[in-house]
Structures are given as structure tokens and as C-alpha cells.
Amino acid sequence: MSGGSSSNGSKSATDGKAGPSTSKGDNAADLSGDRDKKAGKKVVVFKVWGTAPAGALGPLNITYGSDSDNRDGTFKDGEFKATLPLDDDALYFDVTAQLQGSGDIHCSVTVGGKTDKGHAAGDYNICSAQLSAGLLGGWS
User: Measured in whole angstroms, how far is the alpha carbon of residue 13 from the centre of its chain?
Assistant: First the structure.
């Protein structure tokens, strides 16, 4: 799932009433992550936030995923958030975001309560965060 626009009228986990429709992709990602957590499935959360105006090469360039699954993300209204199901066979999960001439951004990837964060400012610098599996594999 990318951080693009979507509508989601799912029920809220706290009140059981239908939630309002929204155009923010991060809310949709939160809801799908909540459903996966309730079902006992672990998820990986990818985030990018800050200020990053479009430059000569276009908007902020975001890539996220694992060693075997790379995806493009969309930065909107100063943020990007996406979730993917945890693949126990993955060696690592990462997120990178490249500025396009100016800006100040932060990024993070979270797996099972562990988070790695990065930061980039100015020019065409790259924010990068990565979590790796244990020495013998697995994501305990």
C-alpha cells in the first residue's frame, strides 16, 4: 500500500461506530495495521515526514519494502505512511526518501516494537532507515 489517497469507512476499534471517510492514506494504513494486529499478524510500518517541496526532478522520491519487495511511496501533505505484512523470510525492511533540491525530512521503519530512524536536510540528500532480521534470521 502506498501513502496515496483512499477512502475508508471501516469501523473504529474504539467505539464500534462507522468512522468518517478520509482522503489521507496514512489513516487507511493505520486501520489496516490495526486489523492485522487484531488478527495476530505482525506488520511493518514505514513513515516519512517533514518539509520537502517538489524540486527540478519532481516530488520527494520514496522507496520502501524488503530485500525481495520494493515499492514506491507518495509524499502528501508533509507525510507518508504505509504498512506491509511481516515476511518472516525477509532479511531486512527499509525506507528511503530522497530530497529534490531542498527540504528537511525524517524517516522510520518499525517491526515488532523496534524502530530505526533517519534524517536528511537540503540538496538531494537521502533519508534512510533499515531494520535487519536476527543473526539466525527471524523477527522475534
Answer: 21
